[in-house]
Amino acid sequence: MKACKEVREEGRRTSRYDFEGHPVRVREASLEEYGGSTEPHSHEEMEFVLVREGHLLLEAESGVFPLEAGQGAFINAQCRHRFFSEDGTGCQFLCLQLHPVLLCTSRYVEERFVVPFLSGRFPCVPLSGEELWEKQVLQGIETLFARQGGEEVLENQLLLFEMWLNLYKNVFAGQEEPGGIVKERRLTLLKAMTDYIRQNYSQKIKLEDIAQAGGVQKTSCSNLFKFYLRESPISFLTSYRLRAGAKLLTTTNATVTDITYAVGFSSASYFVRAFRERYGCTPQQYRSAQARQEADRLRGEEEGKGGGCPPRDMGKGG
What's the rounded Cα separation, in Å, for the pair 193 and 215? Predict the structure, then answer.
């Protein structure tokens, strides 16, 4: 039987936000959770990282950056990256992810101060903490982590703008792309279309429906997805349906056929084929593998209560 592998959107990860409709999330992580190295991945969100204890290596499209305690980095949206350690030492770090749409308070701000810098020219910006502005950005990560789950949404929004302003003034200023190239590359429109998919994936959806959700033509819709997400709208829809199907496989006892239609696939054979291509195993094999992992986890917890070593927390990555 082919081994079942965990794949998150073929290296793309999806974040769960602290507040529905407010796309920002901050959390603490450790290299130990991933066996010393995360898999290379990317996501729609920009990411700020702060090392709290130990050290790690950040590999991004622009190189490999060693980060010590008190240092961090800005990782641009869609930048493929990973965190790892060469010497096997532990590392505790904070990850702050925010969708660029949070910074787009108006079309002018979006086109002038946000979109031009979401390009391959700025995949990663190391933050040594030596400059005052870098210290302010890194402190902002700590502040947002301390406030997580609280109701200081407006305060957090202000702080995010201050962090972006520091990056703009000290890194991006003077590096704008020529005017006019962002005319049809609207982050707000893309967000509307991806939200439409997430809310209606279980229904029959055509390219025209997705484009209509953003108020654009089909060609502009496809261009937006390919420019920012590096895939077509239909591919994004299929990927989201597969993630939803994988979740139902591990959280319900529904049959594969029932799950097929629940997540919007037209036939069980198509669902199984697409699932195998994405996850490397059939839906039934995936369900069995996840059940075994959960049983092992529970058995480890019981052994830990009996005086043995506590089980490792295999948390989700950022």
Answer: 9
